Amino acid sequence: MNQTVRQFCIILFVTLLTLGTIFIFFPQFMLIIFTLFELLSILLSIYIVFRRTDVTSVKIAWVLTLYFVPIVGLFLYLFFGRKNLKSNAIQKREQEALIYYVQNLETKDLEHLSNVEEKNKQLSGKAVLGGNRFDVLTDGEETFTAIFSALNKAEHHIHLFYFIIKEDELADKLRNILIRKAAEGVQVRFGVDGLGSVKLSDEYLDSLKAAQIEVEIFNPIRSFYHIARANWRNHRKVIVIDGKVGFTGGLNVGNEYLGITSKFSHWRDTHLQVTGALVTELQEAFLYDWLYMKNSHGSASEFMTEDYFPIIEEGNDEGQVIYGGPYDQERVVRDVLFNLMDSATEKISIASPYFVPDDEMLALLRRVARNGIKVEIIIPGKGDRKLSYYGNDFYLEALVSAGIHVYKYDNTAFLHCKIMIIDEKVATIGSTNFDIRSFDINHEVSAILYSGQAIQKLTADFKKDKINARKITALELAQRSTWQKIKGKICGLFAPLL
């Protein structure tokens, strides 16, 4: 992957160097060359406007990129903008076989559903299941203590997928546990995203394979041609142990998620531990991706046993697991979240590190707030990426003017949790940011909690986060410098591409 990225940069550099040389020694040809690039950019822009099915803001971002930086823009689109990701016939058949098997398991679907539960069940095709225990893990220390404890107790299998695994002390500890469990006879399957874990070395992966651990990479970039896959990321974080315990949420694997970083004083994140019937749906989400990565005939059949789907019950909490991505016809995760927002009668509370809503979400939140429902949103006070951070600011005026309460978290720390709470009665937690990338481009997973003490824990944590945050006022927005306003508007236009 590193080699492929270098190849892309070298080709782009050589192209620009060649054009620069032509400009110096043959300036009369430059007008023809630039006209050609501009013509290609215009034709590609027409294609994007009339043929692409992206949301409007994504189309605008690409068109502006092509118009203002046509040479670089063409390269970026050709290698990062093409929609070439889909399941082939083998993958699709195996995935459908798995889903059919899970749908016919003898799980105890709830008979009496609320209006929003029924809507989300119909919309997503995923059952609302009782018989669970949800445990909210508020920071990195609590999260990885729980994860490592559960991994050490594994007896039959460990299924693990992460968007990012950074090769540091935390990753080494994870590797050591996985290798030891594999030596004990536990089946370990390890997956990572091809872009998010780009820096994960061959040595790290080979050490897992040498321990008889199955390793797969989601959309690996094995050649220069495959770099087009880089934009279609699998952002999920899922662990399933023995089909009985599962984890999902906002945390990847790396020291920074423990707060060990020089850039931030604290890393604020949230994860979820699930025990009980709903683990079957987390297992399905993991295996759906695993079958995509394996891409082989009959790969689903080995998982259609009680060993992988034991169907246990522990507790009385009710919930759903929703997952989706660009290989799906509908944007299921986004639409389920919209259903929840539209069901609010008193309050919506959202925390997200990247808040770049599409037009529909922005209109929905503004309408809900203008109807008298309290809407609270916490975003970072200090960003990990400048374009995304200032892109958040693009929407502040539209939010605050509708009566939405927007807070910026501690400006020395980073807020990375992705949660939403509706009326303090329903909550969501998962990998899904409240931005266009998560809604339209990434593969995401979210757990919907319809009952349980975990909702009260998330609510209490949200209130603590507000104490550590600063409310944005209309006066403050009006007094921003001209440069701050321009910077926010420019970043807001291009943020949908990140």
Automatic annotation (TrEMBL):
Residue stretches spanning the membrane: 7-26, 32-50, 62-80
Keywords: Cell membrane, Lipid biosynthesis, Lipid metabolism, Membrane, Phospholipid biosynthesis, Phospholipid metabolism, Repeat, Transferase, Transmembrane, Transmembrane helix
Protein name (database record): Cardiolipin synthase
EC number assigned by the record: 2.7.8.-
Domain called PLD phosphodiesterase: residue spans: 230-257, 411-438
Presence of keyword Cell membrane: yes
GO molecular function: cardiolipin synthase activity
Principal subcellular localisation of the protein: membrane
Location(s) in or outside the cell: Cell membrane
UniProt KW Manganese keyword: no
Protein source organism: Candidatus Enterococcus palustris
InterPro entries attached to this UniProt entry: Cardiolipin_synthase (IPR022924), CLS_N (IPR027379), PLD-like_dom (IPR025202), PLipase_D/transphosphatidylase (IPR001736)
